Amino acid sequence: MPRYSTTIMLPACRRVTAPRARQTLSLARYASTSTKEKFRVLVIGAGSGGLTVANQIYNRFKAAGKHLNAGDVVVLDAADYHYYQPGWTLVGAGLRPKTDFRRPLASLFPPHIMHVAENVKSFHPETSSVTTTSGRTISYDSLVVAAGLKTNWDGIAGLPQALADPSSGVSSTYSYDTCDKVWRDVDALRSGNAIFTQPAGIIKCPGAPQKIMWMAWDRYQKSGRGNNIKIDFMTGMPTMFSVKKYSDVLNALRIERGIGAEFQHNLVSIDAANKKATFKKVDGSTVDRDFTLLHVAPPMGPLDFIKGTAIADPAGWVEIDQATLRHVKPEFGNIFALGDCTSLPTARTAAAITSQAPVLTENLFSVMDTGKVSSAQYDGYTSCPLLTGYGELMLTEFKYGFVPKESFANYLGDQSKRRRLFYHFKKDLFPWAYWNRMVDGKWFGPSGPFRPKFV
Questions:
Q1: Which of 153, 112, 143 shows the shortest CA–CA distance to 3?
Q2: Distance (Å, whole) CA 363 – CA 144
Q3: Residues labelled as active-site residues
Q4: In what order do the strands lie in the sheet with 170-171?
Q5: Theoretical Cys-Cys bridge with 218: which of 61, 126, 389, 393, CB 3.0 to 4.6 Å?
Q6: What angle do CA 337, 339, 343 make, to 5 degrees?
């Protein structure tokens, strides 16, 4: 069951539904009964990318004096809730309640953006249409795919069962259902082995697996438990971070703080009853580690309903031009994509979407208006606000090629230095900006509330 605006729910968990906002309910009812089956712009997914770009597209046409009608932009997503997923680390660190980071999805749609509470079953780009899970065919002039990715909880043997067991010591900040379990486990631990894992390959927010580790380390130091708890970072990746500048600093910090590490060790199974975690090394051999606390970042990959389609690359990601965010196949020139579902070689973060959305919007508007893309180009910008303790944060920012692209270096100096100001960006400013600006299409990353101007 694809759920575009959220992570995939754990099999043992049930969704809790809530009444939809009145204006969106009327739109949803209209969408389910109307004979109108073709839209100017169809957006797949109402996560960070989908909501942001749907609003920006509408606003861009309005700014050009070429107003779209209410309902010309439609978003498909059957989820009940929308989540601010970067906030889950704050929950795991005991800084915020998880309810701060969830809102009914229907409440986030303005009257002029139509919401159809269905998911996509299949794409038909040759006829500019999709088929929904209910069998309905919806056509479009332009398509934006912002469906996110799939969290493969079953990719680690024993993980779903361990997460469902309150006494297992196993938790993850990668789910709304388990992020508060992280804090309960971290805060309850008095002694033993605490292991924090990161899988090999693509995941969203690749800094998150170590963010919670740093916060746990700081919690134990400040509560007098540091000498009784051994912390290890077990990662399937070859280094601490993908950007060498930041990786070197983080590795030095790890050594300074006495945190162990094993690189290219990929978690493959969990025996919760015996508190054993099994890791596979690059040579195919395995090693078992005893744990008292185990924080897991699960493996991730492309969504099943995108894999193998005409719009996907061989790996299953929507194949788009790295600069324009338009599909690489000329015959699919009315298709664009952004965010976690794409083939873009950059870190999958909410920050990346803030820079991708205005570029996509400008190019989609230009194609619909003139038939050609504009001069707007995405340079791969992304950011990982990397918590390293309570009251400190390393604000990593980089672009394609994992080259640093720091917004504040000219004013504050090298951003590999941990700062309290950046900590409050993560804890206070970014959540506020997300709920009050970004989902409304009015937050543009490094440009803040100002829409970038493209020459």
A1: 153
A2: 12
A3: 205, 384
A4: 170-171, 293-295, 192-198, 229-235, 260-262
A5: 389
A6: 70
